[in-house]
UniProtKB/TrEMBL annotation:
Gene3D superfamilies per the UniProt record, alphabetical: 2,3-Dihydroxybiphenyl 1,2-Dioxygenase, domain 1
Required cofactor names: Fe(2+)
Molecular function terms from GO: catechol 2,3-dioxygenase activity; ferrous iron binding
Organism name: Rhizobium esperanzae
Cross-referenced PROSITE patterns: EXTRADIOL_DIOXYGENAS, VOC
Pfam families: Glyoxalase
Entry similarity comment: Belongs to the extradiol ring-cleavage dioxygenase family.
Annotated SUPFAM superfamilies: Glyoxalase/Bleomycin resistance protein/Dihydroxybiphenyl dioxygenase
Classification of source organism: Bacteria, Pseudomonadati, Pseudomonadota, Alphaproteobacteria, Hyphomicrobiales
The protein's name: Catechol 2,3-dioxygenase
Enzyme class at the top of the EC tree: oxidoreductase
Keywords: Aromatic hydrocarbons catabolism, Dioxygenase, Iron, Metal-binding, Oxidoreductase
Amino acid sequence: MLPAVNLKPPFNITRFSHIVLEVNDVERSRDFYVNVGGLVETEFADGVSYLRGLSEACHHSLVLSPAEGSPTCKRIGYRVFLEEDLDKAKAFFDGKGLPAEWVDVPNQGRTLLVSDPAGARIELCASMTVHPRKFLEVHEHRGARAQGLDHCQVIVPDPLALSAFYGELGFRTSEYIAAGDDLLANFMYRKGGCLDLALVPGVGPRMHHFAYIVSESSDIFAACDFASRYGYAENVERGPGRHGPSGVLFVYLRDPDGHRVEFFNNHYTTIDVELEPIRWDAASLSTNVHWGLPAVSKWYFEASDFTGVPLEHPEKLPNPMTLERYAEGLTKH
């Protein structure tokens, strides 16, 4: 049921690179990601905060900029391998009739702003300014000690159709969730881990969450403890728990503007070409978590809009096993 993958794509995307969020109060959001998540601020300029993980050398993986209206996800970003890949990407998107324009972005090399067929706004760049990694500067570490940005999950009306588009760009599937012939989640990658982009069905396009890797399982609990310490105890939305797909330990938090961030320990590797995608049955509770309870309803249905991008509804809304449905079922027995 999965679309074909082009193993020699028209240009070379290497990884999910960065995300740009619009927030109501940049300093408050910055403090959340520094004190709770453990990110470091590379630079604060013109009212914009540029943050990165402790193991990241490139200038930013998270950008917080002032919102002109409601807080939104302005863009998500991918790296391409070479400068020439940007020109190939421009030709590809032009050939598809999809938006593609050159933009100037601080601390990034030449940057191409595009839209995928669902309307999500995406930056492609080949380089950033480089700074010393901070993972050994233990006296500066805070919060969950987030190491690096790993992936994002996007809600779209038709995950199967969009999977075909990203398959054409060389994205492979590590694992997926299905109900019969319906694709309910596709976990796709470029960098050789489990995931760079997850596609799930719903009203979209909307950014469901972005995720940072942490070094130790204890860092996941630290995220919760520091959230409580800094007044964000109620922002711990899901977990700690262990995912079904990928099997990682995780916790999800909402930042001061409601954007969702995940902290988790690392994936297995997937670079070998003979590896087949793993299918998960949507009817199994272990698809949600290996142990513990399902997620609350809002985890499935609330997400961040992309700035200025209209929403489309799917033909059929998903009906996942939520904590509310699970609890209702228990009361009937």
